[in-house]
Amino acid sequence: MTETMLRLGVNIDHVATVRQARRGHEPDPVWAAVLAQLGGADGITIHLREDRRHIQDGDLVRLRPTVTCRLNLEMAALDTMVAIAIQHRPDCVTLVPERREEITTEGGLDVVAHEAAVARAVAGLRAARIPVSLFIGPDPRQVEKSAALGVAAVEFHTGRYAEAWGTPAVDEELAALARSAELAARLGLKVHMGHGLNYLNVHAIAAIPMVEELNIGHSIVARAVFVGLERAVREMKDLMLAGRRPS
To answer: Which residues, other chains included, contact 242 with Cβ-Cβ below 8 Å and sequence gap of 6+?
Structure first.
């Protein structure tokens, strides 16, 4: 089985969450992106939510010329959001589910149930030559439908694995992610993973050979409060790469 390179995408939404608590100017997500890149981030991920609870349109405007690695824009499959993506041209768009009442993204996008809306968004982004990833659960039906829509990648929601950490159920959740990753790779999709990953549980996910990218935010930003963002990113990447190396 061919092993891929492993990238770290740092999600800086939580930096914006702290700023929005006071509706002020600090901490600035642009500064966070710069420090994350200095720490070795291979990409910067932001989620421009419809309710603008953290990242704002102005952040995207300023981040686009600042991010010199890969800028990944997470967003809902809405025509208004597609228009924003086409205007600002991130390096990749990840389509995710959104509910106003959720604290954070609670699960994967149901591509099967919302095929028409997702297909319309994918078509618009692909026409603008913006690669698309779909944030889905480790479900073969979702993987197969994603491949049928012609997207470049899928990002598997690792929340259930993270919640099962430290319990007997973790092995089952890890196996489901590994099977789905293998299916996605076989169908020609690039494989990304994210949600709930931290400094304790990332090792096993990084060891899945088909995974090309991990998107991690909350844990890195939380550690950065104590050790600084640059160091927090570097430590996470070191753990990821250690997990990828044969034991």
So the answer is: 203, 206
CA 44, CA 19: separation in Å to the nearest integer? 18
pLDDT band at 90 (very low <50, low <70, confident <90, very high): very high
Distance CA 95, CA 93 (A): 6
Q: What is the pLDDT of residues 217-243, one digit of tens each?
A: 999 999 999 999 999 999 999 999 999
C-alpha 5: how far from chain center: 16
> How far apart are the C-alpha atoms of 212 and 191, rounded to whole Å?
6
Residue pLDDT, tens place only, 20-49: 999 999 999 999 999 999 999 999 999 999
Mind telling me the catalytic residues?
47, 74, 195
Residue 158 is encoded by which pair of tokens? 């690792």
Q: What are phi and psi of 2, to 5 degrees?
A: -75, 135
- Cβ neighbours for 108, distance < 8 A, ≥ 6 positions apart: 97, 135, 136, 137, 139, 142, 156, 157
Cα–Cα distance, 113 to 36 (Å, whole number): 36
Pair of tokens at residue 191: 């494989």
Burial bucket for residue 247 (CB in 10 Å: 0-12, 13-18, 19+): exposed
What pairs with residue 132 in β-bridges?
93
Full-model pTM: 0.94
